[in-house]
Design a protein that fits this description.
Blueprint: H1 5-14, H2 28-35, E1 42-52, E2 58-66, E3 69-71, E4 80-85, E5 90-97, E6 100-109, E7 112-119, E8 125-134
Antiparallel strand pairs: 1-2, 1-8, 2-3, 4-5, 5-6, 6-7, 7-8
Length: about 140
C-alpha cells in the first residue's frame, strides 16, 4: 500500500458515506439528537475511489451504523471513528489512525448512499458509495 493507504483503508472501514453534507455551522448536539432515529442502522458495504493523490485507487470495506452513529464493523481498534447520520440521511464521519485522519460527508437514502472524502492534509481525496447489506 502507498503512504496514505492505511489511513484510506480505515476511512473506508468507517463508512465514509457528495455534496449534501451536514451543515458545518450546526451544533453537534443537534445532530446527536437527530441521529437517534436509527433509520439507517445496519451493516453497510462501502466502496471508496481515490480521484487525486498518492493513495491506492479503490477499497471496499464494511461499516456499521448503530443508533445513527457510524462505528467500526469489526473489532479493529487500530483506528477511531466519530460519525453521525441524521434522520434525513446526511452523514459526516471523521476517522483517525496514528497521526493521520480523514473526513467524509454525504447522504444516505434508503439502502444506498454516496459522498466525498479527503485526508486531513489534503494529499488524497475522492468519492464513496455505499450499499446496505443487513439491518441490525
Amino acid at each position: 500500500m502507498r503512504k496514505c493507504g492505511a489511513v484510506l483503508a480505515t476511512i473506508a472501514a468507517a463508512g465514509l458515506l457528495a455534496a449534501s453534507a451536514l451543515p458545518s455551522d450546526a451544533a453537534p448536539r443537534k445532530h446527536a439528537a437527530r441521529a437517534q432515529s436509527g433509520a439507517f442502522d445496519g451493516l453497510w458495504s462501502v466502496l471508496i475511489h481515490t480521484q487525486s493523490g498518492p493513495c491506492d485507487a479503490a477499497y471496499r470495506y464494511p461499516a456499521r451504523i448503530v443508533g445513527g452513529r457510524v462505528v467500526q464493523a469489526e473489532n479493529d481498534f487500530s483506528y477511531q471513528i466519530t460519525g453521525v447520520v441524521t434522520s434525513s440521511g446526511a452523514i459526516a464521519v471523521t476517522v483517525s489512525q496514528g497521526l493521520g485522519s480523514a473526513t467524509g460527508r454525504g447522504r444516505l437514502s434508503g439502502s444506498r448512499g454516496g459522498g466525498r472524502w479527503s485526508t486531513s492534509g489534503g494529499q488524497c481525496f475522492g468519492m464513496w458509495s455505499a450499499i446496505r447489506r443487513a439491518a441490525n
